[in-house]
Amino acid sequence: MEKPKDLFKKCFDFTLADEVKAQGVYPFFHPIDENEGPVVSFGGRKLVMAGSNNYLGLTSDPRVKASSIAAIEKYGTSCSGSRYMTGTVTLHIELEEQLADFFEKERCLLFSTGYQTGQGIIPTLVQRGEYIVSDRDNHASLVAASIMAQGGGANLVRYNHNNMDDLERVLQKIPDNAGRMIVSDGVFSVSGEIVDLPRLVELAKKYNARIVIDDAHAVGVIGQGGRGTPSEFDLVDDVDLIMGTFSKTFGSLGGYVVGDDKVIDYIKHNASSLIFSASPTPASVAAVLTTLKIIREQPELMARLVSNTDYVRQGLLKAGFKLMPSRTAIVTVLISDQMKTLYFWKRLFEAGVYVNAFIRPGVMPGHEALRTSFMATHEKEHLDKVITEFCTIGKELGVI
């Protein structure tokens, strides 16, 4: 009799990470010793951080840190329960009210992580026989949430990335009697590209579809006062639900969704990722309240972020690098070769610049890239360092 297959065989057979480590070009899970915003410490070495999502540089702002400390003093380190039961404190309600006002929607609901937010929205609202219509390049958290909904009987269909003609083709095939939700990133996390929201809204109205926009990489970067993609196109009233995370511009941890009162109330009482998960910690919520206040009061931070990113983008384009199209805080440099991407990353790391390597299977073959992102708090010397090292190493490796 043949021995039954061991479930862990796939684990013992996985050698890719060890092989990359053996070549000295492993780009993941490097622990940061100290984080000062635009400069971080690895093993006692100072590196320019050109790979963080801390877009406005607020994670190390003294006001933000002080508010988190004060919240711990008042509420402790955890709420020790879900929002549904004993885990709601006054800070949660205050932040929900503030965010609803900021995004010009009726109501807001907080989640413990951005990842859980999609899982609270999509499987809760799109049920058996209904349709999720998803951009092929949506963030992995939206994909996971959509697959969860599939498990409950929902239908998942995808359209080609930011291709509104293909979106219409997909929408035309959905039965008229089936509910449908179009789900898209506002700013796509790999490329920094902005969704064609005006055309998406036009199609949603034509085919009676609801819209969810994940604005994780848009808030604080585009839109009036940093309000994100719907605000950028003056389409706030036409987007049903706007969701996002606190782990980027808001300098904290957690997630949120804003929308109509009745829809948010339905999610609040039916989303398993909310009901069965511990609530956001007081320190995390307090940090967001303070960053939101700073965003409202200091619009110059967003202007500086745009200026910094444009400076690097133009510098790299002038040098001959091929960049993914973007006007956001993300500047993605296409290398289009797996090992060359890893060696480029290693050389940058050794030279004092930290970026993110995007390789297979995370991206399609030929789309391997180095993703950089910038902060309002980067100084010109930091930006010049990034451009200089990219140019030097790019020439060495034959990228430019």
TrEMBL record:
Domain Aminotransferase class I/classII large, by residue range, is 51-388
Looking up InterPro entries in the UniProt record yields: Aminotransferase_I/II_large, AON_synthase_class-II, PyrdxlP-dep_Trfase, PyrdxlP-dep_Trfase_major, PyrdxlP-dep_Trfase_small
Name the coenzymes or cofactors required.
pyridoxal 5'-phosphate
The UniProt GO MF terms for this protein read: pyridoxal phosphate binding; transferase activity
Keywords (A to Z) from UniProt: Transferase
Query: Is the keyword Transferase in the record?
Result: yes
Top-level lineage group? Bacteria
Q: Can you name this protein?
A: 8-amino-7-oxononanoate synthase
The organism's taxonomy opens as: Bacteria, Pseudomonadati, Chlorobiota, Chlorobiia, Chlorobiales
